[in-house]
Amino acid sequence: MFRMIARRRYRRAWQSMNDHDYQAIIKQLAPDFRMTFQGDTSLGGTRTTRAGMAAWFDRLFRLLPDAQFELRQVAVDGPPWNTRIAGLFTVRATTPLGEPYENVFVQFVRLRFGRVSWYEVHEDSLRWWRLCQHLSSNGVAEAVAPPITDTVRV
């Protein structure tokens, strides 16, 4: 039963992403979360604060203003104190230059009692890097900006 609820909430969270309501995602983060987007690109790096996440989402939606995320597969396992979710996605968007963009990625999530404590995104980083280089050469400087990182050391 809990896994069914977790799966439903996960799908709802991605509907919020399609509505570009990232505050709905930020509200689900545990106080001590860690989010990593793999790759040495403008979206890469690790964030551990809500401010860092908001800045990251803002950048994402500036670089892919009409991004839509298709959840193709989802798997949920584990008890409420250690729920693990894996999602396979296709992202489709129009770039700031008006060109289409499509990529695939997988997201791994860990929940503790319904709160996101950790997640990691693995995307076709070469495809994303190529887009960033193309955007940069056409005047979109943020496409090659340093990653937004704010890891808090405890």
From TrEMBL:
It comes from the Bacteria. Gene3D superfamilies: 3.10.450.50. Keywords: Isomerase. GO terms for molecular function: isomerase activity. Transmembrane segments: none annotated. InterPro entries: NTF2-like_dom_sf, SnoaL-like. Signal peptide: none annotated. The keyword Protein biosynthesis does not apply. Residues 11-116 form the SnoaL-like domain. It holds the Pfam family SnoaL_2. This is Ketosteroid isomerase-related protein.
